[in-house]
Amino acid sequence: MRYMKIGTLISAGVLMLSSMILNSGCSEAGNGRKQTTENPGAIFGEVKSAAGAKMLTPIALRGDKKATGHLFFELSEPAEQEVAVTFKLDSRILDAYNQLNGTGYTMYPADKLLLENNGNVVVEAGKSKSATLALDILPGGTEGATYAVAVSAVATAGTEKHTDNKAFIYLVKPLAVMPEVNAGRKVKNLCYVEVNRESMLNAGEYTMKSDKAPFFDIASVFAANIRLSADDVPYVSCNEQTRFVLDNIEQTVRPLQAKGIRVHLSILGDHTAAGMRSLSKDAARAFAKDLKAYIDIYGFDGIDFDDEYSTYATDQAVEPYIPSDAVAPSIEECTSQRYADLVYESRKLMPDKTIGIYWYAGYDYPVGTVEGKTVDELIDYSIYGYYGKWKAIPADTVSIAKQCPYAIEVTTARGDVKIDDDCLKNIRQNGWGYFAVYDLNNERSYEKEFSRISRLLYDDEVEWSGKQYERTGW
Questions:
Q1: 105: pLDDT confidence band, cut at 50, 70 and 90?
Q2: How confident is the model at residue 21 (pLDDT cuts 50, 70, 90)?
Q3: E strands in 65-124
Q4: How far apart are the C-alpha atoms of 357 and 434, rounded to whole Å?
């Protein structure tokens, strides 16, 4: 972040506070150094946001529901001894930021902010990062207004107390409750958007002719990935294109939610041993926690798991499976039960979010029970992704009302969209609960094809707005 030039009238206090304002919320290690007498300007550590959230990332607060940020503390170098850290809600930081940048952000009401464990975390000896800590943001403020929450930290190592730490600021935006649309639909309609080349916004430009409600009920950001860190911990990884969606969440996702479309984040394997069927119970718990941070901070409505491209499912001569403490000892021990464990841990942390699964091979979906809960109780939907074909999970594993046994691909490069009317009639007439479309493109209109689908599923037609969005446009 670049600061405006500081005039001579700015107080010494503001100058001191300015050094505490964090210029990045990225997850990579900072380049600061330990402060010494020879290096008095260096920092001791930083307050950072989980999920790679940048400074001033906006957190949406909808209606009477709380929102949550997730923070951690990172030292400029590994700790020689245990470091106790206390986070503090700090309006002084926000005042300094406003004065330095010519902004006028107002601190969100302090009585509506709760730091987990009273803001106390620890950085263990030999490590540089603390565990994450939740910042609960309770309902309040004026709908449509923009507030801020500034958080600073004091770190204590032995007898030394360090206040020379960079702070972090979230924005908070109270929004209206998401409108309820298509409430009477028996078949919900999901769209996967390949954000490597397409914009999420195109999913919102198709509406029902009768009432102008969205054609799609759910749009999924395809995709973020699951990977293993150097410390053998599974985490959510985002490439540049997915990161673009997150960094511009107000432009790429909020317009869809304002129309009543639920937006999910898809999670895909990424050529490492980490995957839905390989994680240990502890690793599944850790990944679910990291995933929750993304869902909370960016305001997604749910998760969509896609068990592809992890190395237990790839050509071992090209990408061999390498076991570790975080994953199964062998490919044979990468099981659907482990997948169920991950879904359970995710559901436990996110009881109010939608959880879906995408499958196509016949063994790449969760099976089993966890703590007395069946897969059918833990998930909200499943999508069969061998496009143009019909296949279902056994109904004693996932009930048909939660299944999409037939989905289509609308990729422009594949030519005309192929639609099987009989499959659509089967979905509607026999109680199947979902239909899905993959790879909505911006190069053309799908009004004709979607109207054909809509007539069979909903006795209605679809209208296209005529708007087309490039991947980075809005």
A1: very high
A2: low
A3: 67-75, 83-89, 106-107, 113-115, 120-123
A4: 12
Which position has the token pair 């007539």?
A: 455
Pure H helices in 209-335: 240-247, 249-252, 254-258, 281-298
**Least confident segment among 14-18, 143-147, 264-268, 293-297:** 14-18
Residue type, 80: E
Check pLDDT > 90 for residue 11.
no
Catalytic residues: 308
Residue 42's pLDDT is what? 64
SS (HEC) of 151-174: EEEEEEECCEEECCEEEEEEEEEE
For residue 438, give both structure tokens.
């993959």
Q: Is 241 exposed, middle or buried (0-12, 13-18, 19+ CB in 10 A)?
A: middle
Task: Look at the chain and report how many structural domains it folds into.
Answer: 2
Same domain for 144 and 98, yes or no, is: yes
| pLDDT mean over 421-427 | 98
Helices of type H across 102-219: none
Predicted confidence at residue 87, as pLDDT, reads 98
Question: Where do the DSSP E strands lie in 368-423?
Answer: 369-370, 373-374, 381-384, 403-404, 407-409
Question: Are 348 and 269 contained in the same domain?
Answer: yes
Kindly state the tokens that stand for 10: 């700015």
Angle at the Cα of 292 from the Cα atoms of 289 and 293, rounded to 5 degrees: 95
Q: How far is CA 418 from the centre of its chain?
A: 32
Q: Is 2 among the domain residues?
A: no
Q: Give me the residues paired with residue 155 across strands.
A: 85, 162
- Our CA dihedral for 265, 267, 268, 271, rounded to 10 degrees, sits at 130
Average pLDDT of the segment spanning 63-73? 97
Closest CA to 298 of 306, 287, 290, 286: 290
pTM above 0.85?
yes
- Residue 8 pLDDT exceeds 60: no
pLDDT of residue 19: 64
Residues 355 and 319 in one domain: yes
Rounded Cα gap, residues 422 and 45, in angstroms: 61
- For strand 218-228 and strand 234-237, is the pairing parallel, antiparallel, or unpaired? antiparallel
Same domain? 344 vs 316:
yes
What kind and span of H or E run contains 429?
helix 421-429
Q: What's the CA angle centered on 300, arms 199 and 308, to 5 degrees?
A: 70
Predicted pLDDT of residue 412: 80
Altogether, the residues listed in the chain come to a count of: 474
